[in-house]
């Protein structure tokens, strides 16, 4: 914004000087030339010619003054608009920053100054790397901005990213950031506009909602898990009673009891890993790891509802990158919904295939299907087809897939079933 003001002032000054010079030269030429003509060609109408000279000069001067007035009005209007825009930007509750084509800070609004504690610091015409030395407490977020800025330049269009920074008081701020690169007519970098909205409270609310939804899912899975645990418990109970009646114990019986206890422990551990809050861990893993883990968690509930699960894992060796626990949450949610749609039993198919540089993971069921008018609303927060549902499962699932740069699609026909297609990028593709 300060650049705009400087350009306006410079333009106004240059225009004034040029206009004065043109007026001076034009007036001088007109007077000299007209007098010379009158001296060379005397005429009885000399008085009328002199009057005509004056009229022409007055007209010329009037046009020139009108032009000056119009330009001055335009200049004043531009200054007023600039001041209004500056006031508006400073009043915004968002971070707004203007950078030049080399990534140097030109101007930042009041919110940005307070956020980065810039008052009294020489931030203007400094790059993020230079500011990282001046503001060591914000070093990490500033250096991350270098990469996201470069990504926006390379994309050549408005780019949206999520960036976080830790304030000196320990508070973590998360921003939904829009970066708009500007180019001149020759395609050279001209400037970068950065606008960041504080979504820290929204992220916290999402995290709470996600935990609640996960606990809700765990509650529904518990019925299947409990059914699965009964089998080893029955075995253990039988052998303990046998030992009590015979008053004898041997190594074989002890091994069986320990084996069944380990089986129970494994089932419970799988459920706890899924339910407890975990920090996000981004890593590479194979598709088969994801599918196998989800099968362990959902097969109990499927058996309980007489649902047959068929797996066609044609891309088992394909590698994904992301938070495996989050993706487990997505697929457990999808498969649980499919089981719920087949209360009288049915068949569920999990199919994977590679399409281009992505993998398609399909979950297909033979359930009751979803009416078109309801299908359009699925994924909206708090919309649910279940009496006890919170309506957040698919909303969260969709967001998780988007965070993993994938897509989430649902196709369904009443009476025929539902197909969920989840697309994710493959590592190394």
Structure, described:
The protein is of the alpha+beta class and 429 residues long. It has three domains: 2-91; 95-198, PAS domain (Beta-Lactamase); 204-425, Histidine kinase-like ATPase, C-terminal domain (Heat Shock Protein 90), CATH 3.30.565.10. It is built from eleven helices and twelve strands. The protein starts with a helix and ends with a strand.
Name the poorly predicted regions. 1-9, 387-392
Which range best describes the helical content: under 10%, 10-25%, 25-40%, 40-55%, 55-70% or over 70%? 55-70%
Question: SSE order, as H and E?
Answer: HHEEHHHEEEHHEHEEHEEHHEE
Strand order of the largest sheet: 2-1-5-4-3
Question: Key features?
Answer:
12 strands; elongated; Beta-Lactamase; 3 domains; 11 helices; Heat Shock Protein 90; disordered N terminus; five-stranded mixed β-sheet; 429 residues; five-stranded antiparallel β-sheet; alpha+beta
């Amino acid at each position: 914004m300060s650049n705009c003001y400087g350009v306006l002032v410079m333009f106004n000054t240059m225009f004034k000087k040029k206009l004065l010079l043109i007026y001076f030269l034009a007036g001088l030429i007109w007077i000299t030339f007209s007098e010379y003509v009158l001296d060379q060609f005397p005429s009885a109408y000399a008085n009328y010619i002199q009057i005509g000279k004056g009229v022409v000069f007055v007209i010329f001067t009037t046009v020139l003054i009108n032009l000056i007035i119009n330009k001055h009005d335009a200049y004043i209007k531009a200054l007023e608009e600039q001041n209004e825009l500056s006031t508006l930007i400073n009043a915004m509750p968002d971070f707004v920053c203007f950078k030049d084509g080399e990534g140097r800070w030109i101007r930042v609004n009041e919110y940005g100054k307070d956020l980065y504690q810039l008052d009294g610091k020489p931030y203007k015409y400094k790059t993020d790397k230079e500011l990282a030395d001046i503001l060591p407490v914000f070093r990490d977020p500033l250096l991350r901005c270098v990469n996201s800025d470069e990504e926006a330049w390379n994309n050549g269009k408005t780019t949206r990213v999520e960036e976080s920074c830790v304030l000196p008081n320990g508070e973590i701020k998360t921003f939904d950031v829009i970066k708009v690169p500007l180019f001149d007519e020759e395609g050279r970098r001209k400037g970068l506009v950065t606008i960041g909205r504080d979504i820290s409270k929204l992220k916290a609310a999402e995290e709470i909602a996600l935990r609640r939804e996960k606990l809700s899912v765990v509650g529904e899975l518990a019925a299947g898990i409990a059914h699965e645990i009964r089998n080893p418990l029955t075995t253990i109970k039988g052998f303990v009673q046998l030992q009590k009646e015979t008053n004898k114990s041997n190594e074989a019986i002890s091994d069986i009891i320990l084996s069944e206890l380990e089986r129970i422990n494994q089932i419970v551990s799988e459920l706890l890993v899924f339910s407890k809050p975990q920090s996000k861990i981004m890593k590479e893993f194979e598709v088969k790891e994801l599918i196998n883990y989800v099968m362990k968690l959902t097969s109990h509930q499927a058996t309980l509802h007489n649902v047959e699960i068929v797996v066609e894992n044609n891309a088992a060796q394909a590698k994904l990158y992301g938070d495996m626990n989050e993706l487990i949450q997505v697929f457990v949610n999808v498969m649980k919904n499919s089981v719920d749609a087949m209360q009288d039993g049915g068949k569920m198919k999990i199919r994977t295939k590679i399409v281009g540089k992505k993998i398609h993971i399909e979950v297909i069921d033979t359930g009751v299907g979803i009416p078109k008018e309801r299908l359009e609303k699925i994924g909206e927060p708090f919309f649910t087809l279940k009496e006890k549902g919170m309506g957040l499962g698919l909303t969260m699932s969709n967001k998780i897939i988007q965070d993993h740069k994938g897509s989430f699609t649902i196709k369904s026909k009443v009476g025929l079933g539902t197909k969920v297609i989840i697309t994710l990028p493959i590592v190394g593709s």
